[in-house]
Amino acid sequence: MNGILNALIALAPISFLTLTALVVVVVEAAAERGERFSFWIALVGAAVAAATSVCSISNGGTFFEGMINAGGYGKYFALLFSIVTLLVIALSRSYLGRQNILHGEYYSLVLFATIGMMLMAAAADLVILFLGLEVMSISLYVLAGFMRKNTRSNESAMKYFLLGAFATGFLLYGIALIYGAAGTTNLDNVMMMLPVLSTSFVFWTGAGLLIVGLSFKIAAVPFHMWVPDVYEGAPTTVTAFMSTAAKAAAFAAIIVAFGIIHDTRISTAFAVLAAASMIIGNVIAISQTSVKRMLAYSSIAHAGYILAGVAAGSLFGTEGVIFYVSVYSFMNIGAFGILSLIEGPEGKNLSFEESAGLAAKKPLLASLMAIFMFSLTGIPPFVGFFAKYYVFAAAVGAGMTWLAVVGVLTSLVSAYYYLRLVVVMYFREPGASSYDETPTFAFSAVVVAAAATIVFGFAPSLLLSVMHMFV
């Protein structure tokens, strides 16, 4: 009994968020029109989960028969997921109201998805990694189709579900093959057996299938085809959540599963995925007329940038990956958050044409969007520049200079479509688009994301110091 209690305390963010999600479910079932209570309970729960992840830094070790790791980067990711969830929930209530989908079940689904993400990052066993991924994925399938009366939202949920289930099959079969070769799913034990397993065809086939399954979740080419349609059809706040926290969770899983394997074959596979994602994501983003689809294709490109750090296979590369997914979360939540604030009925105001003259009608929103676009491009002194520097430097240090060159050249391509939005907002005559009053509470979440983008840009060592606190 004491062992279980110690485990729950050490895994405080997961424990508390699970309790919060269950309370929200009960409130929705018991209270008439309990959406308002669910909102505040979920908001407070995410804030407390973030606080407990910091307060329980010293409670490390593995628990539940060595299946969950309570310390290290897993707890850092718990902090990151809690903050992202807090910002998404803050953005959501006003957006759900404007879209006539104000239902309290939304908040419980977001919380359960976050719990799955935390499990993925804390996994010390492939079974827990799979369990966390499924908890996250099933919640996101429902959230993607949350606009039940919108055919595009229904279509996005169906595509995400079918392709996601297919990718999960690859992942699960990969885990089965690794178990067949190693006789264990414990990652520490697999690492100890690597000298023996390095010549096993079954093991490397399983590792390859594991890469396929996780590449789908990070939206790396050629497993990216679901992204534009799902991101466009899902509610915008859900898209913000999927493109940041879910992507970060998938990269956390890659670090958990492959951070222990330093092999040329693994590095080459990730390098090829990185190069393809950077090239195809950036090139196709140029032709988009919808800002939401543009950001969807750019997220594919950013998956490629981050994979450059994974391909390096070094501690510096791993730190670069964690730094990148952290700051990318703030940048992308800010960008999608602004889209959620200006979005009208039936997805109005989300195209480049409809964004014309936004600076004249909503100067604060336009200026914040410009900050996020500059940072996503990688223009100093914003934090996006340092994020790309870290992963490209790791690639160069690992002897993959060609991959860093591809990253730099494709970043130049991205400048076209990111800065195109800035030009449209500031230098085009305002169109007929009309915007509702900006809700203060939701706007504050965008301001927080912008502040993080600027502060960590001027002081990237501050975020690195926070990361090192958890290791």
Short description:
The protein has about 475 residues and is mainly alpha-helical. The protein has helices at about 1-10, 10-30, 35-55, 75-100, 105-120, 125-145, 150-180, 185-190, 195, 200-220, 225-235, 235-260, 265-285, 290-310, 315-340, 360, 365-375, 385-395, 400-425, 440-460, 460-470; strands at about 60-65, 70.
Features:
mainly alpha; 2 strands; 471 residues; 2 domains; two-stranded antiparallel ribbon
Report on this model:
With 471 residues, the protein is mainly alpha-helical. The protein has helices at 2-10, 12-30, 35-55, 73-98, 105-122, 126-144, 151-182, 187-192, 194-197, 201-218, 227-233, 236-258, 264-285, 291-312, 315-342, 358-361, 363-377, 383-397, 401-427, 440-458, 460-469, and strands at residues 62-63, 68-69. The protein folds into two domains: 1-257, no CATH class; 262-471, no CATH class. The protein has a two-stranded antiparallel sheet. Helix 1 (2-10) packs across helix 2 (12-30), helix 3 (35-55) packs parallel to helix 5 (105-122) and helix 11 packs across helix 12 (236-258). The longest helix has 32 residues, at 151-182. It is globular, with a radius of gyration of 21 Å.
